[in-house]
Amino acid sequence: MEQNNSVTEFxxxxxxQDPKMQKLAFVIFxxxxxxxVLGNLLIIVTIKSSQTLGSPMYFFLFYLSLGDTCxxxxxAPRLIVDALCAKKIISYNECMTQIxxxxxxxxxxxxxxxxxxxxRYVAICKPLHYPIIMSRQICITLIVLAWxxxxxxxxxxxxxxxxxxxxxxxxxxxxxxxxxxxLKLACMDIYATNLLVVSNSGAICTSSFVILMISYIVILHSxxxxxxxxxxxxxxxxxxxxYMPALMMITVLGLANPAAFS
Length: 262
Fold this sequence. Notes:
Elements: E1 9-12, H1 19-49, H2 56-82, E2 89-91, H3 92-125, H4 130-133, H5 136-162, E3 171-172, H6 179-183, H7 191-222, H8 228-236, H9 244-256
């Protein structure tokens, strides 16, 4: 690594260079980070400690909260600390680790949201077969596959990042390490690498978005002949609907800039 790169550390430019705005960013992100972690931990503890919350819906919600906690922790603490630092230095190894964690937990969140949508589709559209289709063993298998898929995606990203040679500036125009800011610093033709990065992340964002849209269209179509009370009851059993705005934001941002979806 040291033979291929003259850069052993990077300097993050952060969100702003204004000292007053940095203090404001510290307060805002600290409050949101603490709220996110405490909220997700409350969900995790509640689901694990309750014997009545053993359905697949809460099984997937547990991993969604776990992934969200890890994803937030991969970037927010450094962003909060750096807001009070004059020089935001991150080592090469720490930068690569952050890229790996970002894509691992970011992809995991998207995969779990897709699984939650599939779970609600089966529960609403195929209620008689639901206990068989969404058995405990199948749910565990789906989560394992989600972790494997996230790991493969993250490994692909980190391999591309490790192959980038850095021999000039080490100023990263971002608040964290990610592929697109690093590609701008690489001492090589980045066209092919950038294409691989975008296609890799874009495939996940696009396919997840399409699956989610199809599942909810089918769900809403299947409920058209139900009574108003029946539709309300069916939709109220789907906590992943509450995450739909967040997922839409993730996927839209990913489609606009697939390499930075996480």
